[in-house]
Write a structure and sequence with these properties.
Layout lengths: L1 H4 L6 H20 L4 H6 L7 H17 L8 H26 L17 H12 L23 H16 L6 H19 L25 H24 L5 E2 L1 H14 L8 H24 L1 E2 L3 H20 L1 H13 L5 H39 L2
Parallel strand pairs: 1-2
């Protein structure tokens, strides 16, 4: 059992790409603090990094576990996933609680100052249990289902994907999985092209867009599952087919493609369907291509290897801990919009630097030792 539980060799380039995507998310949220015109010009599709994360997850889950089910139980699978994901969920929640009240005194976060301390702790507890909250329980003012730390909503869908994989998807042959991928592609088109086949898409502010999933209502729950299904299923299918494009020094090329795709300005202006089409192309074609290039790539040189490893190490901690800082940055920005440009640049660089440091410290001093302890004292038993 011990030999079987040992980790397989890692796809180092994919780990590095996860770090690149996490950095793009941080930059996107920092720019999101400013007037809309700035966000539409830079990192304007940074939110699609979430969809790329789901594709990476599907690939890695298939690679890590598909050939282990003759020696692994459902219980041991779920224990492994909890050990991998949940320590940082808890840490991210704690960070969210620590910074929560520093984001108040601001119209956009209108409920922060009135939030009772025990309600903050209650929501933190429910967040650790992965229980989504309705808008009526919002204590920030954005209506998020995770008011303490916004990005945790994606982990809720990640756990759903893990459950679907363990109970259903692992049993399916490639053909059946391919059919599901095609159906999921149609659902992605339903959102990005505003086909609205089920009548669930009602909001105007995110029309022809995959922005959504972070509010607990029918529309956003649907968008959340749409964002999960095609990337995760396609990543799983790619891992089973074994389709890879072998290139040397592929980390830098794939990083450039991914960063460029997420940095394309909003297209079409008032004709939103043009930008929706671009998002559809990203999810259906560009992200799977980056995934196959990354899976087939090798890293050359100590410097490239070190950078790739560092990005992979901080990727999850950075993603799960940066948003409380982004809340605080947003609050500061809107209270000081008339401050000199240099002041805003310095403040943004400072928040970004702190986010990187917290992620690195969390990985080294918390996530790594906690997962090692859980593996030794809980998982192996």
């Amino acid at each position: 059992m011990k030999n079987y539980l040992e980790s397989k060799p890692r796809y180092e380039v994919l780990d590095g790409l996860r770090g690149v995507a996490a950095i793009v998310v941080v930059l996107y949220h920092l720019l999101e603090s400013y007037p809309t015109g700035l966000l539409t010009a830079y990192i304007s599709h940074g939110y699609l990094a979430v969809d790329f994360f789901f594709a990476l997850s599907g690939f890695v889950i298939g690679y890590a576990y598909d050939d282990r089910w003759d020696r692994m139980t459902l219980k041991s699978f779920f224990k492994r996933r909890i050990v991998r994901l949940h320590p940082m969920v808890i840490f991210g929640t704690i960070v969210g609680v620590c910074f929560f009240y520093y984001t108040g005194d601001f119209e956009l976060f209108s409920k922060v100052d009135d939030a009772i301390w025990w309600m903050v702790l209650l929501q933190a507890f429910l967040l650790i249990l992965m229980i989504p909250l309705p808008s009526s329980m919002d204590i920030r003012g954005w209506g998020e289902l995770t008011s303490i730390n916004g990005p945790v909503w994606t982990l809720m869908f990640e756990y759903v994907a893990n459950i679907l994989y363990a109970l259903v998807l692992r049993h399916l042959p490639k053909l059946a999985l391919g059919i599901l991928v095609a159906c999921a592609a149609l659902l992605t088109a339903d959102v990005t092209l505003r086909l609205n086949m089920f009548g669930l898409l009602e909001s105007d502010w995110n029309s022809y867009s995959l922005v959504g999933g972070f509010i607990f209502n029918p529309e956003h729950v649907y968008i959340g599952y749409v964002r999960l299904l095609y990337p995760f299923l396609s990543g799983l299918l790619i891992s089973r087919i074994g389709k890879k494009f072998h290139i040397s020094n592929g980390f830098w090329l794939t990083s450039l493609i991914l960063f460029a795709a997420l940095n394309v300005p909003v297209l079409g202006g008032e004709t939103k369907i043009i930008d929706g089409t671009y998002q559809l192309i990203c999810v259906l074609l560009i992200f799977p291509l980056v995934l196959m290039l990354g899976a087939g790539s090798t890293i050359k040189g100590k410097k490239s290897t070190a950078i790739c490893k560092f990005l992979g190490d901080i990727s999850f901690p950075l993603y799960i801990t940066h948003y409380p800082l982004a809340y605080m940055h947003t609050s500061w920005v809107h209270r000081h919009l008339d401050a000199p440009l240099g002041t805003h640049i310095l403040a943004s660089i400072g928040i970004f630097t702190i986010a990187i440091f917290i992620a690195w410290a969390a990985f080294k001093l918390y996530d790594t030792p906690v997962r090692a302890w859980l593996t030794e004292h809980w998982l192996k038993k």
